[in-house]
Write a structure and sequence with these properties.
The structure is a homodimer of 138-residue chains. Chain A has 138 residues and is an alpha+beta fold. Chain A has one domain (7-121, 128-133): HIT family, subunit A (2-Layer Sandwich). Chain A is 31% helix and 22% strand. Chain A is built from three helices and five strands, in the order αβββαββα. Chain A has helices at residues 7-12, 52-73, 119-133; strands at 13-18, 22-27, 34-39, 77-82, 92-97. In chain A, α2 (52-73) packs across α3. Chain A is globular, with a radius of gyration of 14 Å. The two termini of chain A are 13 Å apart. The mean pLDDT of chain A is 96. The A-B interface holds A 45-48, 50, 52, 55-56, 58-60, 62-64, 66-67, 70, 77-86, 97, 104-107, 109-110 and B 45-48, 50, 52, 55-56, 58-60, 62-64, 66-67, 70, 77-86, 97, 104-107, 109-110. β4 (77-82) of chain A pairs antiparallel with β4 of chain B, so a sheet runs across the interface.
């Protein structure tokens, strides 16, 4: 399957790797440990555009990503969201939240301007994520 | 099973009914058609506190609620979120979004003060939701 990624998602993220269903991206906002999972498949906009079998995989991948990201980041809470008001391609945010972070206790969505990673910091974060999530570069 | 609901969730919502896993609540904010699904079970905080079998049910219930709420509300997009930064009990928001609504295209979380339903409007909304979701009062 050729994986097609919305240009805005591509511009705002770094590729981490591929689970069975979803491509895993790192949001280029160093304020938050923030993954985005994008299920493969054409013209997906809503969770209910997936088949039940795919949804079961999706939530397992989101749970695994969330549990491991929480441990990696030493986070207090994982926030999961599927919004898509701006970017139509179905994508699921998995964000590690720390009490007192730049948006706490509010949502990260709409919480001001992203702080891009420095190049070394991005490479380091991606390497840590690949190890933690057992993924290779897509 | 006795269903225990966080007092803040109870105060902010109306009960709609019970799916197999989740209690369905209507958020008392007439600005948005906004459901909250609360899985039964003690001490759940994160999606990954559920068993995989329960997660598969959860995402089916969220998908069903989302698809039907979207049709009922004539919405443009469904937003789904599990945040829990303020209320620890695991709960999943399923919100129908219309282009131009009070928070569009931002998230509903943190989008200002709720506009409570008038009593008649709440009763009417709950009745419509029970019909649409095939639920009875819990």
């Amino acid at each position: 399957m050729t994986f097609r990624l919305d240009p805005r998602l591509a511009a705002d993220t770094f590729p981490v790797g591929d689970f069975a269903l979803c491509r895993v991206l790192l949001m280029n906002d160093s304020r938050f440990p923030w993954l985005i999972l994008v299920p493969g498949g054409a013209d997906l906009r809503e969770i209910f555009d997936l088949a039940p079998r795919e949804r079961a995989v999706l939530i397992e991948e989101a749970a695994l990503a969330g549990e491991r990201l929480k441990a990696l980041a030493g986070a207090d809470k994982i926030n999961i969201g599927a919004l898509g008001n701006l970017v139509p391609q179905l994508h699921i945010h998995v964000v590690a939240r720390l009490a007192g972070d730049a948006a706490w206790p509010g949502p990260v969505w709409g919480a001001g301007k992203a702080t891009p990673y420095a190049p070394d910091a991005a490479a380091n974060a991606i390497e840590n994520l690949r190890r933690t999530l057992e993924l290779r570069a897509p």
